[in-house]
Amino acid sequence: MRKSLLIFLPLLALAPVFAYVDDALSFAYEAATPFVKQGFNVREDAWGGDLGVKDKQAIQAQLFKGNNYIFCLGTDVKKAVLSLAIYDSDGQLVSEETSRPGYLVTTKVAPKKTGTYYAIVTVHKSPVERTGWALVYAYK
Amino acid sequence: MPTLPKTVTSLLCAAALTGVCVAQKPADSIDLKEFPAQSIDDVVVPVPSEVFGVLDKLGNPNWRGEQRENLGKQTGNRAQVALLLGTVIAEGFVAVEAEDPERVKEIGRRVLSLSKAINVEKAVLERAKSITDKAEVKDWQAVRKEFDGALQDVKGAMEELGDNELAQLVSMGGWIRGTEVLTSIVRKTYTPDSAELLHQPLLLDYFSKQLGSLSSKRLSNDRFVVRVRKMLEDIRPLIGAKDGDNISLDNVQKINEMTRETVISITGKGA
Known about the structure:
The complex is a heterodimer.
Chain A: H1 3-8, H2 15-36, E1 41-42, E2 47-51, E3 56-63, E4 69-74, E5 81-87, E6 104-109, E7 115-125, E8 131-139
Chain B: H1 6-24, H2 48-58, H3 63-66, H4 78-97, H5 101-117, H6 121-136, H7 140-160, H8 164-188, H9 192-195, H10 201-212, H11 217-220, H12 223-235, H13 249-267
Helix pairs in contact in B: 2-8, 4-5, 4-7, 4-8, 5-6, 6-7, 7-8, 8-13, 10-12, 12-13
C-alpha cells in the first residue's frame, strides 16, 4: 500500500498500523541517503505495509532500461530480519549487490529490459507479530 | 536436562545457520504465480525524469524545443483542473531538463494557483517556494525532487479531502504530458532502444483500472475522463505485448498524436 494511502485512509482503527509503517519509512529513507551522494534521485512516493514472520509480499514496479535503481527497504523493528530481491516478469532474479538481510536492506537493479518488475519483501525473523515495512527507490 | 554431544550440537547449529542463510539468499528464479493476490492497486507512478534521464543517455534531446508555450487555462471543471495540474508538474520536469530557471519559476507559481483552485494550496506552498529558490541557484536535482514532492503533496492533500479519485487524475495528467514529450523525442531520432521506454503495461493497466472503477458517476462520465479512458485503451495494444518487444516508429507516432491531442484538450481553448 502506498504511503499516501496509508496516511490518509480514514480508518482510525488502523491508525497504529499506519504509524509504524510511517516509522519504517524514515528508516527506508535513511538507507537511501548514502546513494544521494552518488547522484541517485530518491522518490518521494513509497510502498509500505506489515507482514508476519515468514510472510512475503510482492510489489510491482515499472522500471526503464538505461536507468540504475536502488531499492531500500526499512523497518523500525531493529531486531527484525528482512530481505529484498527484485525479479523480472519471467521470475528471474535481477537484483545485485544486495546488502545482508536485516532491518535495513538495499539492492541495485540495472534493468536489461523496460517493463514490469517484482520486488519481493520477506520477513525472516521478528520479535513482533506484525512487522511494519516501507520500500522506497531511487534512480539515476 | 539432557545435553547433546558437543559435535552433534555443533552440527545442528551449523545446519540451522545454513538453513537461515539458504532461506535468506534470494532464489535465482521464482514462480510469480505464487503471488496471485498481488493487485495492481499499489503502483508507484514513475516521474517523467525517470524516462527523460534515459533519453539523455541515448542522445542529446532538444528539451527547450519540447516545452509548451502555454501552460493552459483552468476551468470550473475539477477533473480538468486535476489533469491540468498533472500536465503542469510534468512540464516542470521538462523545464528542469531544459535547465530553464525562469520557466521553472513560472511553473512553480502555476502549480500554486492550480492547487488553490482545488483547495490544496497549503500543501504545496512550501514546495512552490522551494522550487523557485532552487531554480534560482540552478540546483536541478533538488528542483526535480521538489516537483516529485509537489505531486505527492497535492495527491495526499486531495486524498485527505476525500478526493482520492480526482487525485489519480493528477498522476494521469503528468503521465500523458510526459508521454507526449517522450514520443516527440523518440520519433525524431527513432531507435528500438528509445522506443522501448514506452513499454509501460503496468501503468496503463493501473490507470485504466482506476478510471474504470470510479465510484462517482459524474466523474466517470466527465468528458475529460471519457477521453483519457479511450486514449489509454487505444494506446495499450501499441506498446508491445511482452517486455523487450519492439515498438515501431509508426506506433510511436500514433501514441504521440493521441497524447498530444489529449494534452491540447486538457490545456487548450476547448477545455
